[in-house]
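> @MW can you paste both from yesterday?
MW: sure, first one:
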Amino acid sequence: MFPLKSKPDLNTTLPIRQTASIFKQPVTKITNHPCNKVKLDPQRTIEQPRQLFWEKRLEGLSASDVTEQIIRPMELPKGLQGVGPGNNEDTLLSAIASALHTSSAPITGQLSAAVEKNPAVWLNTSQPLCKAFLVTDEDIRKQEERVQQVRKKLEEALMADLAANSAESSSDTPADSGSDGE
């Protein structure tokens, strides 16, 4: 016979005591013992483990519009520089966007300078693979100006569309013959 390969037991149900009787008896699970490290380790319960360099899975992916035309990727500020093996701007952008959407913690980048020597050892998995960066008041002011400009363009486009639709609908309806419907 061939020896069976054992698989890790990922079952989270309580173990059942196997007895000679036909009735199964439950096993009591004690979780409040002072030596229980699982209960005392808060990081283990808060943060799920993450795969190192998971951002690499996002390489080669790009957004497309409804006509399946590839949308030009955003340009990152010059202050954002990737770290790690084979990191590029598209992967970095995806990693930062993912970090912003999945975490409420501030995004600071990799704070340790040693991450450039060996990223697999010094990597902070809760931060995207980029060098530490600082957002200044000037950066915020410039971004606010850009947002205001884009909002103004959007408002103008919506008003033009509304005017075109109202002109089109008024030309499509037949002229009223003056009767009140009475």
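MW: second:
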Amino acid sequence: DLITSPSLRAWPEWSLAYEDEAVRIWSASGGGGPVWVGPDLDTPAHATQWPTIRSDTGREKIFDAQINEPAWVVVSETYMSGWRAFIRPWGADEDAEVALDVQPVLGGLQGIRVESVDALIDQAIDQGTAPPTFYLHAIDRAIIAGDAVRVDDLLDRLEALMTSDPPEIFGAIKDRIQAGIQAWRASSNPDLTQRAFESQLLEVEQANWTIRLVYSPSSFQIGLFVSFLGAVLALFMPGVWLWRSFVASGDSNTITRVARNSLAPIILNLFNRGIDFAFALVMLRILGPEDAGIYFYAGFIFVWFDIFTNFGLDLYLTREVARDRSRAARYLFSTSTLRFGLTLVGVILLAAFLLARQSFIHPPLSTSGLIAIILLYVGLFPGSLSKGMTSLFYAFEQAEYPAAITTLSTISKTVLGLIVLVLGYGVIGLAAASIVTNVLTLALLLWGGRRLLASSRADSRSETDEAPRRARWAGLADFPLMRGMVGESWPLLLNHFLATIFFQIDVLIIEAMHGTTMVGLYSVAYKWLSALNIIPAFFTQAMLPVMSRQAHEDRDALKRTYTLAIKLLLLIALPVAVVFTFLAYFLTGILGGSQYLPDGAIATQVMIWSIPFGWINSLTQYVLVALDLQRRITRAFAIAVTFNIVSNLIFIPQYGYQAAALTTIASEFMLLLPFVRLLHQALGRLNWLAMIGRPAAAAGVMFGAMWLGWSLHPAVGLVAGAFAYLAALLVLRPLSAAEIERLRPLLPGRIRNLARPFLSR
């Protein structure tokens, strides 16, 4: 019986509205509308209000409600698992939304619990999205607490808000609020409660909210991702065929080789990032900020041990084999043996770290976080061997092959990740999927690299008998060579580790002081930066073989190569930073959804300005390695890391991720200073004003044009910025005639002739 069922909270005065052979429909006489708000779930007859429904498309409902204390919002529709709810201050846009849980109540209706009303109001005030009635609510709480200082601060901010915003936002209550503020200021009554009563300041106190209920099931997102993946494969396979058909793989001039070995990896890895971002659209929404923060933190710890097991051997292998390809197999097998030994040592270090982490930092890492870190470490060795094979391809200047393999691995990783998320395995499943991906990547790279190893073994057999017998067959590890590797690679390991700590130590500090949720919000900015940092990473890696030879044969040529490379990187980095500054909220909303706003967007807006300095540092570090100055680089990293850690420890406790983002920019600049000093000592003075000035001026023009156009419409701002930047480049001409001449072989014939008079000076 409906009335007596113990499994259902029954409303009083149920009446039978409809009955046939298949169904009975009951109605509650106390009901007043499809949505109601109340302090509990006993009955809608005791509801405090019936919210105003602004729109209802079936998939999305938007309604306004006044909620001054913890309450339930009940929607009289059947609960389904795909519904998501978001709350924001009345009058604010979706950037100010906070996610709420939707749960089944009253036997199957949709229930939304609004619990921390005071915290939501304080957050809206801090973010500048609160209407004036929110300030009155906060003032009321401060009066009850007897906090006169807080009351005065809120009144000052409310008064400033009233004068800065147009009156129509506040409607008829504006005059009443201003009169209440004036009466409060005029009163000298020390009793805050009595003073509020006399001034009638709180008469219009309200906490008005807009609640958005949207049906967004994971099945829809998964289907969208699978469709996207199908489109990716449809583009990838013809793209590989076109590249093999029309792009020559033989030796040609230096610029063409560098372009071929940087362009393919950059395009393919940006392609991979597109796949990763499409997967992140699903992953971030399924995991939520807290679990996303746990997985990001586990990946951050994994990177430490990945650096340790690589031991700087990637750079070392590329540099040495580029100078003498006949020794490729010997170097590969020796570095692989060294990687295996380092992986075993890393097990002890990982156990010690996890023990210390769980013992001394509160709260301890969750069980899922611990298991994820351990599983990521299991996949470490095959991943490290894959990096060795990739370095070998770069040394032979055949970078497009490992780039294509990485695309296949990315597809595999995302498909497996999607499966484990759908099955409910969360961060543990994602970590386990990475093991399969790493093994698959290694197998494909070994298969593709067998010809390189075979040719190297043939060359090694032609060497004189002076070589030790055990090293003639390059398939055996050369232990004397390994001892030399340790000495040569140790500075590269230290530099790589310091560079990572310098860029990511803030994640560790934020997690320890503010928890994994803030790390999850901050991770959105990291995802965008990691995607963009593909450009300098693969560009400089492709240039390393060329720069390594120039460092030993023609340092003037190296100086010219470096100057041109800096200009090209800045011509990309600066406009990208400008665009991301304006699009940060939009991009964060697409990637993670409104639950990552506004914090993820603010972090992105700030951190994006680290890329001009960071890209310069990335190239400069490789040039210094080519000059065999890796030991002296360590001092520069030590200075920058010390600055980074001290700054983060001082400011993160109070300012959180904002301080971390600003410190990232300052740290990149601090690293650039000693890098430049080392470079000048090795190559002579460089004209930095000529390298940086014109690209920076063009980006400044672009920023101004976008700022003016953005006030009209974002699309107008984007178009205005793009045209302004191109026009500024045509006027300023950042590349010299000699530099244009070096780049001309990369352009099609007609464009080659047209570009020369416009870009060179």
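> thanks! The first strand starts at residue 14 and ends at 19.
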